[in-house]
Amino acid sequence: MSVDLKLTSTEIRQLFLDFFASKGHRIMPSSSLVPRNDPTVLLTTAGMQQMIPFFLGRETPPALRLTSAQKCFRTTDIDKVGNERSLTFFEMLGNFSVGDYFKRDAIAYAWEFLTQVLKLPADRLYPTVHPEDDEAPKWWNEIAGFPDDAIVRLDENWWGPPGASGPCGPDSEIYYDRGVEHGCGRADCKPGCECERFLEIWNLVFMQFYQDLDGTRTPLPKKNIDTGLGLERLSMVLQGKETDFDTDLFRHIIDHFATLARTSYGLNARTDTSLRVLADHGRALVFLAADGVLPSNEGRGYIFRRVLRRAVRHGKLLGLDKPFLSEAADTVINLMKGHYVELATQRDRIVEILSLEEKKFSQTLNTGLYLLNNLLEELRQNNSHVIPGEEAFRLYDSHGFPLEFTQEVAAEHDFTVDIPGFEKAMQLQQERSRAAGAFTQGTDVEALTAVLNRVGPTDFTGYEGISGSSKVVGLIVDGAEVDSISAPQSALVVLDATPFYAESGGQIGDRGDLSNSLGIFQVEDTRRPLKGLIVHYGRISEGYLRLGDSVQANVVAQRREDTMRNHSATHLLHKALRDILGPQVEQRGSLVEPERLRFDFASSRPLTASELAQVDEQINRWIRADLPVHTNIMPLKEALQTGAMALFGEKYEDQVRVVSMGSSIELCGGTHCASTGQIGIYITIQETSIAAGIRRIEALTGRGAEAYLRRRSSMVDALSAKLQTQPEMLESRVDQLTQELTTLRRQVAQFQREAAQRQTQTLAEKAQDVSGVPVVAAKVDVPDDRVLREMGELVLSNLNRPGVVALASNYPERVGIQVSVSPELTRRGLHAGKIAGAVGQRLGGKGGGRPESAQGGGKNKAELGAALALVPELVKQNIG
Ligand code: ATP
Ligand code: MG
Q1: C-alpha Rg value of the chain to the nearest Å
Q2: Which end of the chain is more exposed for a tag (fewer CB within 10 A), N or C?
Q3: 327 Cα to the center of ligand 2, angstroms
Q4: Neighbours of 321 (CB within 10 A)
């Protein structure tokens, strides 16, 4: 059966929006493909995306009934593109109810729109529902007259956040029967079948539950409706076409590519697949670029790259060897700009970015394919069918040839790729580059000199502001000048003028970004490797940057402001030190960072506590006086006459910059606050010696000082709480506790001595008689060798007559021993050192010492008993 109304896709889109507007819905413009305020989602995949905050009650909707035609992009469907009904980029028509109407009206509106407005034959439409949903079949019956057994139950008709918490519910999908000729012919073929007969066109989602993380579902107080109707599929049905690609949304685009490839659509299955891929991907890239997605190696920029590369590869399969995507952009733009006006306004950008990326990748592809074919030839001669991992990595790393492509080409020639080998090579490379450090400075100098000779010194505009428009006049990658850079290359960028401060005079270099509509360069550091030349070091994170491009240069404001506070404070510190300690104070170095400042100066002695306090008080007085900061350029001689402080040994130009605030006057090229009040507050946190005669002061200002004081203050609160007292009483409380601790320690020591005394007595009493000599050989428990020795001496004296004592104690790592012999017995041939030696040896270690007292030990704890048993034996053998 044919459909009698031949509507264009533009008319269909409009009919949909008008229909729902007539049912009280507010028409919402399509939101961007890049979701705002939702970093968890890379690209918009459904009309519902922009409604989520309304459904979750986080934002108030402009109306309870909403409708839209939404641009969508689904990466999950990339590999399906080329079949008849799946696209990466497509338009989803939708109507939404935020706690207003529910199932009955959603079904009634859908039915009315399909059968009354579009006049689709009712007998071709098949509603499906979820098996657990008893309401939806009731409404389908009442509204459209479907008997219960004509409504297909499908388990997959459930919408919800998989494995997460959030709103969810059953859905009802409407299928269109394209006719038996499209079917698989099986008796049980029905909507939901894998074959091409039944086409899902519209999904009505009934959001009625809230699902917990553990899977528990509770009914939502306000139930929502979210529907999605694919414009391409609907157009295909209404225009009586076999595929999405035969509709008026695609035909022009397909034909454009077919003409370029000197073929036509419908001739051959293989070229048709490639033509479909080009049409879909080409359209998708135009829309991605229009919404500001720029090629990069991460996130959505990487999706852009993947789609573009796949398109270029299919272009190659079609024999296209000139850039074709940027050429086709206008066809897409002209077809779609009626509804999506951003395509027209962004036209130049879209074409530019596509052509840059396409050219770059075509080169990569050509080089890569050439090298890969040579490699395959070589391997074939060696009878190998595996591409070594290092080779695949070299193609990727040195030539940018993607691994997926190596794999694809390999497969075409019955080769495989050693993936673990590839990953290993990648890991090795990462370790190497970490070791090498970020910037290769030495080799850059030559290229930078060439840039400086060509364009002259950089104009520094950073005294007046922290952003501005500039022109790219030099690009350097790996020591060589280049015309353009693309994400994610590291590079050096030179501008004609820049607000970025280059590290000098102790003040560190600025960070920020350089951006225009084609790319973003992240400035990680700014330096002046050659006199007059300011160089931005960093990485392009998205898109492209070309020689001659205009860019907006933006310094990170907060970092710069913190740095300025610290720099102005450094001048005040210098002056305060001279005022308080005397003019012999001489600056020897300084470091001005956003987080802190450091000032080194010559002084033969540390500052006293009172001098340090005076310095802090003086600086903060100047800060409160809010002294204006003046800068003047003047001849060096004149500057020195006004008493400006200059760095000893530093070479100055004839014309110098003089920075003055109050009585502080210094020669300085750095960036400063407008007045001292902006410093906020100053605190010295440390004063140390760094070399003979050189002291260092570290200090904080502004935000850093504030955070420091807050940390200290909450530390005092926490300590007071722990010690159960008030902050004011903290000191006396600590004194009191220290006192208590001393008393307790003394008592514990006393107890320990008494306990040891008792133990030594017990040990002495247990002495055995060996040839008339009392001998103690026992294991005791003491913390260390020192206590063990003391104990040995005590036991010996407790024997009350000449004797021998050997004690052993188990420590975590080893057994320690102590042997003590009374002097009377040493004269009769006993020797503590020899006994300790024998016992130690038995323990797998050694021992030795004087005749009266000796130590030893070993690790063999199991031998402890046997080792001690040696002692009486030795006494018996050696006693004269
Ligand atoms: P399918 O299973 O066919 O991919 P889906 O279940 O993913 O569809 P939904 O998420 O319910 O589809 O999206 C609602 C409607 O959007 C679908 O009924 C269909 O008309 C359309 N749609 C979804 N994905 C695509 C796509 N990749 N290309 C074109 N249209 C699509
Ligand atoms: Mg899908």
Answers
A1: 42
A2: C
A3: 30
A4: 10
Share of the chain above pLDDT 70, in %: 98
Instruction: Specify whether the CB–CB gap between 191 and 128 falls below 8 A.
Output: yes
Measured CA angle at 271 (ends 269, 276), to 5 deg: 90
Protein residue with its CA nearest to atom 21 in ligand 1:
230
* DSSP conformation class of 268: -
Q: Tens of pLDDT along 726-780?
A: 999 999 999 999 999 999 999 998 888 788 778 888 999 989 999 999 999 999 9
State which ligand 1 atom lies nearest to the alpha carbon of 171. 11
**pLDDT confidence of residue 162:** 63
Residue 642 φ then ψ, to 5°: -75, -5
Instruction: Please give the number of the atom of ligand 1 that sits closest to the Cα of 173.
Output: 18
Residue 4's pLDDT band, with cuts at 50, 70 and 90, is: very low
Q: What is the DSSP letter of 767?
A: P
Binding site membership of 172 for ligand 1 (Cβ less than 6 Å): no
Q: How far, CA to CA in Å, does 337 sit from each of 330, 333, 660?
A: 10, 5, 58
Sign of the torsion formed by the C-alpha atoms of 299, 300, 304 and 307:
positive
Q: In Å, what is the CA distance from 760 to each residue of 496, 548, 756, 767, 769?
A: 88, 92, 6, 11, 17
| Residue 48 to residue 837: CA distance in whole angstroms | 85
Would you say the CB of residue 77 lies under 6 angstroms from ligand 1?
A: yes
Evaluate: CB of 227 within 6 angstroms of ligand 1: no
- Burial zone of 472 (CB within 10 Å; 0-12 exposed, 13-18 middle, 19+ buried): buried
Token code pair at residue 461: 């505009």
Given the CA of residue 227, which atom of ligand 1 is nearest to it?
A: 14
The answer to whether residues 200 and 153 touch, using CB atoms and an 8 Å cutoff, is no
Q: Is the shortest distance between the CB of 276 and ligand 1 below 6 Å?
A: no
Strand partners, 125: 176
Between the alpha carbon of residue 413 and those of residues 104, 377, 387, 410, the distances in Å are 57, 10, 11, 5
Question: On the CB side of 423, how many CA atoms lie within 13 Å of its CA?
Answer: 2
pTM summary value: 0.75
Q: Is 70's C-beta closer than 6 angstroms to any atom of ligand 1?
A: no
Strands (E), 4-117: 26-28, 65-73, 89-98
Taking a C-beta distance cutoff of 8 angstroms, is the pair 507, 492 a contact?
A: no
C-alpha distances in Å from residue 153, one per residue of 180, 187, 202, 304, 375: 21, 17, 16, 38, 55
In whole angstroms, give the CA distance from residue 125 to residue 777.
100
Measured over the CA atoms of residue 445, residue 450, residue 456 and residue 459, the dihedral's sign is negative
Within its chain, how far is the Cα of 397 from the centroid?
Answer: 22
Query: Are the C-beta atoms of residues 93 and 16 closer than 8 Å to each other?
Result: yes
pLDDT 10s digits, 591-607: 999 999 999 999 888 99
Question: Half-sphere exposure of residue 684, counting CA atoms within 13 Å on the CB side?
Answer: 25
The alpha carbon of 23 and the centre of ligand 1 are apart by a number of angstroms equal to: 24
Measured at the CA of 232, the angle between CA 226 and CA 238, to 5 degrees, comes to 100
